[in-house]
Design goal:
Elements (H helix, E strand, L loop, with lengths): L1 E4 L4 H4 L7 H12 L3 H7 E5 L3 E11 L2 E8 L1 H5 L1 H19 L3 E7 L5 H7 L3 E6 L9 E7 L7
Parallel strand pairs: 4-5
Antiparallel strand pairs: 1-2, 2-3, 3-4, 5-7, 6-7
Length: 151
């Protein structure tokens, strides 16, 4: 598996998981409207013979960032290889961008989301009721820089 800067057409080539179909439009919209230099800097595509996942981050304010991912079917079938590589990418991203906090949301109806996110170093902060586009609940999780001060 290799990791490359995301190109605008990568999203069209990704075979998406059924759980993510409702979120698909938001990610396509965000990637389509992202400036090319930001897309290149802040988004990565995991490749085998075709894209298997697209991940990205964007700055909310200061050193607080939010992240997103769209996972293809390959990731469901081979999660550990992807997760190990993604965790290394997250570690370097924290250093490269000087992040203090990265937050993500994950649908509560996705059976493996909490285990997967904990493996990546995230902690659950709470449940967002009726948060999704279709009224589904979502977990909010964060990963805090190890050396940042707790408030």
């Amino acid at each position: 598996m290799i990791v490359l800067a995301t190109q605008p057409t990568d999203i069209e080539k990704l075979s998406c998981q059924p759980q993510q179909l409702s979120d698909w439009t938001d990610v396509q919209h965000a990637l389509a409207h992202m400036e090319p230099e930001n897309l290149h800097q802040f988004c990565r595509t995991f490749w085998m013979t075709e894209p298997v996942a697209i991940v990205g981050v964007f700055r909310k304010w200061g050193n607080h960032w939010a992240g997103f991912s769209v996972l293809g079917s390959y990731v469901v079938e081979h999660p550990m290889g992807f997760c190990r590589q993604y965790r290394r990418l997250l570690d370097s991203t924290f250093e490269d961008f000087g992040m203090d906090r990265l937050e993500v949301t994950g649908r509560c109806d996705h059976p493996d989301i909490l285990r997967w996110m904990r493996f990546l170093g995230f902690e659950v902060e709470g449940r967002l009721r009726r948060y999704g586009m279709h009224g589904e609940d979502a977990w909010i999780l964060s990963r805090i820089r190890k050396d940042s001060r707790e408030s």
